[in-house]
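I am still getting used to backbone structure tokens and would like to learn alongside you. Label the sequence line and the structure token line clearly, so we can match residues to local backbone shapes. Would you write everything just below, so we can both look at the same thing?
***
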Amino acid sequence: MTPSKRKIRAVMVIALLHDEYEHDICKKSRKVWMKPWLRKRENFYHMTLLKELKENNPEDYRNYLRMTDNAFRDLLSLVSPKITKKDAVMRKSIPAEERLIATLRFLATGRSLEDLKFSTGISAQALGHIISETCQAIYDALRNEYLKFPTTSGEWKKIADDFYLLWNFPNCGGAIDGKHVSIVPPSNSGSYYFNYKGYFSVVLMAIVNANLEFLMVDVGKNGRISDGGIIEDTVFHKKLIEGTLNLPQNNETKYGLNFVFIGDEAFALHEHLLKPFPQRELTYEKKIYNYRLSRARRVVENAFSVLSNVFRVFHTSIALKPEKIDRVVLASCVLHNFLRRNCRNSYTPLNKTDFENIESGIVSDADWRKDSNDAHFTNLQALGQQNASDATKNARLSYVAYFNGDGKVPWQDRLIK
């Protein structure tokens, strides 16, 4: 054997011995496979408390899970096939019911995984996997029914009818808004998620109907992106520009006006997207228009407010990987719609929002000009003044004329004056 071959063989032997040594060290450092108290989780976890609450304190039970028992059972039946695991040889799997409850508590409280393990009896490492998987299962199970985006002219008309009935705004397909959701930045991400308000975030874009339900949700854009450009990167905006949303034509709408969506200063004016006039160029008629638009647009602010007050994970900086954060946000939004329809009376008490008295039209807020911005969501940054086409400007002016003419409501002059 040549000297060079002997050296190569010696290096290989040393490498193998080093790997065996490292392996032995790792085995010795892991003293226990599972902490003893987690093996006896049935003696300490919250399922015993939940049983007591269900039988004797239904209000506290509903507060714990953010839903009634009937709604919880319906949800469990939908997600169980997606999250049920088989028992292993050495241990039993965590039941689907406990996986769902742990996830709902995380969404309801925003507690850290290290903290949540003490009430659930599930290790923080396992919770990180369970919560992400269950959020994806919730979204997959509910989105087709509870987060269905309109695809036909008839479906858009139904949404517009609700806006007209509840908020006196005709031909409206939804209110658009976006919020920054606070996150703990991933390792080595630098300023990628750093937003204009000075913290790290991802952006949640949404369209909301007249009943505070989400029609479309887009999440995951990093907070550093220019806010005005975020909507331009959504499927909705691309279809709006291409004219493929199947919106009702003017000969199908009330008063022959454009079918529109409504937003604030963060969005660019479009033939089918209305925004307020800037303060510096307001006439009396334009003030009326701004009031009527703001009155209807508040549904999206209210929806975000309800969402963050029920799912208080939005009161924290979410400390998960970006893809897991997306799943948490999407699951929260689709659960919001699920609970709006199935637990309406208990899910959203009227005093939790600034709904107006629909019969009299009296605004409950002291000042309608101030949006109900939740402190735990940050608004998108307003766009500067942009040039718009004559057709776009005329579409907005048509609504100005309508709100000051045929579409006038009895209380608008009093509120403006």
About this structure: Residues 3-29 form the longest helix (27 residues).
